[in-house]
């Protein structure tokens, strides 16, 4: 989180809490921010209007790269794409929804700079796979010539989890450290395919027994050193590993251990 005397971050709101207000002891802003970043499928994209500089907001579907960087798929026919082409600075608002007052639910604003992913590159293949695993219907148009993937280089984030539950966050607070995890990242695609083909029972156990989600044909859409992204139709869930995973062997052990926990209890 923002350090004393550190340069101001985009979106930062220091010293605005009412006098005497303190975050509850159970408030973990980093964990909540990472959960929102990894689990929200659609959000508000804020770009700078290329004509006047006014804030321009639009609804977009989102996914995340292995390190948690936000990913969007946009058409050159869209105004927000033209804005990004002129100035990549932008923000995305990820809001959890539910019953009652909408403002009672947590939301995260991520700020940074978007850049397009070059086609026919290793990054394009990885980003395309991860995005389409989260949004299968996008397969219908993702290959069109006017569509491209964009990846945000995160500068900062602002979390609002309710009264006295706000936090200014640095990029390192919301992103996943992939340093030294090249083996795990390289093994991700095969591990996801293997789990979805041969271990659907274990994936459902993760969702139902560990996360309290509804029963159904859950699948894994992505893996990273900190956890797994699960999807069931339009529903998503985030499963955290017990510790940081950096190798293919450790990834396999983590998935086996979680399945055992789901079957037998901790």
Walk me through the structure:
It is a single chain. The protein is an alpha+beta fold. Helix content is 30%, strand content 29%. It contains seven helices and eleven strands. Strands 1, 2, 3, 4, 5, 6, 7 and 8 form an eight-stranded antiparallel beta sheet that branches. A hairpin with a 5-residue loop joins β7 and β8 (166-170). It is globular, with a radius of gyration of 19 Å. The chain starts with 28 loop residues before the first helix and ends with a helix. 33% of the residues are buried. The mean pLDDT is 92.
Short overview:
The chain is of the alpha+beta class. It has helices at 29-39, 79-86, 122-134, 171-174, 182-198, 200-210, 248-264, and strands spanning 42-48, 55-61, 63-64, 70-75, 89-95, 107-116, 147-160, 166-170, 219-224, 227-232, 235-240.
Q: How many beta-strand runs?
A: 11
Helix content: 25-40%
The overall average pLDDT, rounded, is 92
Q: Assign the structural class, choosing from mainly alpha, mainly beta, alpha/beta, alpha+beta, or little secondary structure.
A: alpha+beta
Question: What is the radius of gyration computed over CA atoms, rounded to a whole number of angstroms?
Answer: 19 Å
Low-confidence stretches: none
Question: What share of residues are in beta strands?
Answer: 25-35%
The largest sheet is: 8 strands, antiparallel
Distance between the termini: 31 Å
What is the subunit organization of this protein? single chain
* Basic shape: globular
Topology pattern, helix = H, strand = E: HEEEEHEEHEEHHHEEEH
> How many individual helices?
7
